[in-house]
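Quick one - inputs below.
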Amino acid sequence: MTHRTQAEQTSPLTYLAWLVPGIPLVWGVWQTLIKVAQLFQG
Amino acid sequence: MGFLDREHSVAGPGWSRWLVPPAALAVHLSIGQIYAYSVFNKPLSRLISGDVKAEAGAPGDWSLFQVGLIFSVALFFLGASSALFGKWVEREGPRKTMFASALLFCGGFLVAALGVRLHLLWLVLLGNGVIGGIGLGLGYISPVSTLIKWFPDRPGLATGMAIMGFGGGALIGSPLGTALMSRFIGDGTLGVGSTFLIMGAVYFLFMVFGAFMVRVPAEGWVPAGYVPKVNAAGGMISNHNVLVDQAFRTPQFWLLFAVLFLNVTAGIGVLGQASVMIQEMFSDKVLGAGNGVTAAAAAGFVGLLSIFNMAGRFFWSSTSDRLGRKPTYMIFFALGAVLYFLIPQFGNMASLVLFVAGFCVILSMYGGGFATVPAYLRDLFGTANVGAIHGRLLLAWSAAAIVGPTLVNGFRDSQIKAGVPAAQAYSTVMYIMAGLLIVGFLANLLIRPVASRYWASAPAGQGSPAGQSAADD
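Output:
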């Protein structure tokens, strides 16, 4: 069987694709960290 | 709908495999919203009275117990559908499955919104619980085998990136749900109906992005420079495939079932009770007047556990690619048992920092257990049917979701009834959890490579329409 291989290609499309889940995830982590701060302030 | 078929989702030359994890992450971040469903519990139980801050609901309002059933039903259908539809998922491929998951999970929100508007609990249960729950199961297992095929050199890293999303979904779902309900508070349903409609639409777009982006590798594809490991990690990494129904008959499947069940049981009960537990163990009585943990600080503790639950999925799963799956679970069980044994001592010492740190590590290993198990299955049973086998294994999660909280709540209540102060009421539960983890350690210790009689005699084309994986060539 012939194996096709390819390099670890990253393109602008790859970065854009990561932004789609990345932005809401960072927002969610930030919102949670604001709540976490209250644990240590309390 | 040919676009959704497996053959139309085969990657062309030059397609980067790094485009597949964000697709999987988009789906898992969406369905992970179920972990944040509790933000709707109070408003759902005050729809008639119309006052979310009221101590008690008006006559006809649903009780918190009734509303809590929605989450339990959704988790039950997650486990059941992943077990039932695992073979279908493997046959039809990730794109069709992700799309079906989007339709069901988000359609469930629309049905539930109607249920909220008409104040019919059964309709909300049908929407978010049954229909949404089936969407959860399909969405959870849809990218797993595809990621393992794209990353035969780093399966733990690949599945960790996706399953991290399921833990992270609560981090988005909770503030998003709260913000939307505040915005639409005057819609006659305390904002819940409008929030369900908007969430259904937004998550649908997000999940369709995943379905659009996902690709399966062409037959025979391997990453550049990849050399399959044959009988690596002491023979634990197999280059043979086992069919789904055969896997069900192996002792390895049931030992791994016990491993997942015990690891989840130890974590899930604490996760559900974390807010109350920290407030009771570190109350004003223990720390002195005005120094006790407040409800707001306890919410911060729950948030911190969610972050460690999410981060642990990525950290432990990717670490298992280097350590091996079996040693990784050894760490989970050994370290987890020690920490559970020490938690009551941290309470007695009134050391909030050690208590919080201990639970953060425990919850990271809880998440790590979920994320590492697909790669463990791949090692033992091969790549071809790993999605379907994983689906069946998730029944252990459903069982643990019932047993874990029952154990924690049951023992706490019985201790308090026996006159034990609330601050010490959790000690017995912690020792029981430590014991469960020791049993899990032994189950993991017994796992050996799958015997050759279970291997598929003619692997190509059996249970894997995409053909044989790269690792098996």
